[in-house]
Specification:
The chain is an alpha/beta fold and 249 residues long. Helix content is 31%, strand content 26%. It is built from 9 helices and 10 strands. Strands 6-7-8-3-9-10 form a 6-stranded mixed beta sheet, sandwiched between helices. Strands 2-1-4-5 form a 4-stranded antiparallel beta sheet, with helices on one face. Bound molecules: adenosine-5'-triphosphate.
Length: 249
């Protein structure tokens, strides 16, 4: 069904003190397979929050549920005062939520600049191509290169840059550091910190809690499709034994 831009509900400013994103009793399914079992969490404006957990815990499914690409989901996901649980992914994106999937979604036959220009701008205030190149100078050098020719780190930068151009201010980043060299991980970490300073709100899926600790305010631990603990970043050092138990590392 075609959805005109005009039908997208304008997000209302969250009530004073209310979290920007409120998830309550979220359940989600892949076909018959029930994967999220009462996921509940909050994210305040300007926060960087991570979802930590073992493989298969439900972190990616939580991200997919927020952006509305799970076939079946129930419960409540309120973003900026708007209930989104029954909205299409297209309308949810128009509220200003950008999703960078684990597989990055770079079109291999298109160049860097073509990939950057692909997603439509959904909100005013998106970064210009020049601003994206300032943030990721490697991308500028590779502007004419095809997606297939990029390193994993360059692909990740392109996937993040592409979302920043759309004007989304709430970012869902799924394992942005996976498989990358330490120096590139550092660069991604610096970018996340810079985006936070500029007022972006970010949910980050991470396996690497050492990295998560360098960028985030709080950490939700996910197990079997629900949140089993929340650790403020300042308590991470004191929670190492617990984290090893949770993550099996
Ligand atoms: P990972 O880091 O391994 O992706 P995760 O915490 O992100 O872990 P999810 O990808 O959300 O986990 O997966 C949650 C559960 O849903 C797992 O049991 C997984 O096997 C299952 N699952 C994921 N994608 C699908 C799919 N497309 N169809 C059926 N089941 C799926």
């Amino acid at each position: 069904m075609a959805e005109a831009l005009a039908t997208a509900p304008a997000p209302r400013p969250a009530a004073a003190g209310a979290p920007l994103l409120q998830i309550r009793d979220l359940n989600a399914w892949y076909g018959e397979s029930h994967v999220l079992h009462g996921m509940t969490l909050d994210v305040r404006e300007g926060e960087v929050v991570t979802l930590l957990g073992r493989n298969g815990a439900g972190k990616t499914t939580t991200m997919k549920s927020i952006i509305g690409i799970m076939g079946k989901r129930t419960g409540s996901i309120v973003f900026g005062g708007t209930e989104t649980i029954r909205m299409s992914s297209r309308l949810i994106a128009r509220l200003g939520i950008g999703y960078v999937p684990e597989e990055r979604g770079i079109f291999s036959s298109l160049s860097v600049i073509e990939n950057l220009m692909l997603p439509p701008q959904i909100k005013p205030g998106g970064l210009s191509v020049q601003q994206i190149y300032d943030l990721f100078p490697n991308l500028k050098e590779r502007s004419g290169s095809q997606g297939t020719k990029l390193s994993g780190g360059e692909q990740q930068m392109l996937a993040i840059g592409r979302i920043l151009r759309t004007g989304a201010k709430f970012l869902l980043l799924d394992e942005p550091t996976e498989g990358l060299a330490p120096v590139i991980i550092q660069q991604i970490g610096a970018t996340i910190s810079r985006l936070k300073k500029e007022g972006f709100t970010i949910i980050l899926v991470e396996q690497n809690f050492r990295f998560a600790q360098t960028v985030a305010d709080r950490h939700y631990v996910v197990e079997q499709g629900r949140v089993i603990d929340m650790i403020p970043n300042e308590d991470m050092d004191a929670s190492i034994d617990k984290l090893h138990r949770y993550l099996g590392v």
